[in-house]
Design goal:
18% strand, Rossmann fold, alpha/beta, single chain, 15 helices
Length: 400
């Protein structure tokens, strides 16, 4: 179950701390396997080590073991940079402290992680060798950070650490997320419009479509899947109108022409704007499209890397549609994967993908980072509906 859960719905837990505080030994003890190389030699861990795990009763999680953030030299700086990138997609950080206690380094590290709005649990490792100082315990207590005494050597305190991590998980990760289930009732019919083009993966559907269909079935409704060319005939043959029509954003214009105004209509990407991000902020960001000027730069952000197809949605179609809508000469930059650019301020608008392969906390953190640096942000689906003149209609079901 743990290995098959989508990466984007996993709680991400990252172990951070100085070199040689026992992070690798601790993660091995937590998961009960030797997934990270443990050594008394400082700097053994280089690239972040990933381990998928079923943290019961919470569910599927991903653990990261990271290089020490006090690493040295040019190579050490690269390791630190890799660790910081992992922190940007972390839900809960385990700050590992050894018998030497809390130094100025840990104090600065904790402040930086709190600045990222991270949930933190402090693990005093090697407790079989020494007892944490009262001043160190108080340091974390004053910041509202729980402390657990553990030992990777004899596994003492591991259960308590797991419980503390589960308790620290963001509220949105504890709640059962809803994609579209609040927009229809048991017994209703929901029509899903799924175009099959060059971007469609051969032999399967993309993750947002699969998740929506599963939710329809879980809520005892009926899901009807059609291509856009078949939609008009399917609607005409239905005895009662569907409770909702959900379409791929790329064909929303043609679909809107076939769906009567009285039938609620939205897109998969708009559902994910609510499911993975802040739909209010993303809709607000889309209004910036009307204010773009000649020479402005727009950042296109993808959460995962993939081979672009001839008419790629993020690299070709959306930039073309924005240019056609605005009539402006604009510059488009493209970022793929987990990285987020350091020079964010140079962009007049950021357009993020649906985030189906990343977690909600990372998407929200990216939205907050854009807002903090005064860069309007929207997502693919909301942007497409905006430039197609259909934004008001596709967000109507959400009563924004």
């Amino acid at each position: 179950m743990s290995d098959s859960a989508p990466r984007g719905v996993r709680l991400v837990i990252t172990l951070v701390g100085r070199r040689n505080v026992g992070k690798s030994s601790l993660i091995n003890s937590i998961v009960g396997q030797n997934v990270a190389i443990a050594s008394s030699t400082p700097g053994t861990t280089t690239d972040p080590v990933l381990k998928q795990y079923e943290l019961l009763p919470f569910g599927p999680v991903t653990f990261y073991d990271t290089a020490g953030l006090d690493d040295e030299g040019d190579l050490g700086q690269l390791r630190i940079s890799a660790t910081k990138k992992v922190l940007m997609r972390t839900d809960v950080a385990i700050a590992v402290i050894d018998e030497s206690g809390v130094s100025e380094y840990e104090r600065e590290l904790i402040d930086k992680m709190l600045g990222l709005d991270l949930k933190i649990v402090a693990a005093f490792n090697k407790s079989d060798l020494s007892t944490p100082a009262s001043a160190d315990i108080n340091f974390f207590s004053e910041k509202g950070i729980p402390t657990i005494k553990v030992s990777a050597a004899d596994s003492s305190g591991i259960k308590e650490l797991k419980d503390a991590v589960m308790n620290a998980a963001p509220q949105e990760m504890k709640e059962e997320p809803v994609l579209a289930g609040d927009l229809f009732d048991e017994g209703d019919q929901v029509v899903c419009v799924v175009p099959i083009d060059l971007a469609a993966p051969k032999g399967r559907l993309i993750l947002p479509q699969v998740q929506v269909l599963r939710e329809i079935l879980d809520r005892d409704a009926s899901g009807i899947v059609v291509k856009e060319r078949e939609l008009e005939a399917v609607l005409g043959n239905m005895r009662t109108p569907p409770a909702l029509v959900i379409t791929d954003s790329q064909v929303v214009l043609s679909v809107a022409g076939d769906v009567p105004e009285e039938i609620p209509l939205t897109t998969f990407s708009t559902l994910f704007a609510r499911y993975k991000g802040d739909i209010f902020e993303l809709v607000s960001g889309a209004e910036q499209i009307d204010k773009l000027k000649d020479g402005d730069s727009v950042l296109m952000c993808e959460s995962c890397s993939h081979h672009p197809v001839a008419d790629d949605i993020g690299r070709v179609k959306i930039p073309r549609w924005i240019k056609q809508y605005t009539g402006r000469e604009l510059n488009f930059d493209f970022y793929a994967g987990h990285d987020f650019p350091d020079d964010l301020e140079k962009y007049s608008l950021a357009v993020h993908c649906g985030g189906c392969m990343t977690n909600r906390h990372e998407v929200l953190r990216r939205i907050r980072e854009c807002k903090r640096r005064n860069v309007p942000v929207t997502n693919y689906g909301v942007c497409i509906s905006k430039v197609q003149g259909l934004l008001e209609r596709v967000i109507k079901p959400f009563s924004l």
